[in-house]
Fold:
Amino acid sequence: MSLITRCPRCQCRDIGRIGSHQYYCWGCCAEMVVGERDIRLYEVGEDGTLVEVSGTAAVG
Ligand SMILES: [Zn+2]
Structure:
């Protein structure tokens, strides 16, 4: 399991951990869910729902 130290989307380091496999980027307000092979990016919509951002970032 990898740890995120930088947002794969905006490269900012202002990452907060919100769950065992979940992180939140304060730079671009994206939520990241870390899988074994990739990182899924979500945006939090105005109504609070998560919207998956197209494209995933490979771990490592
Ligand atoms: Zn970001």
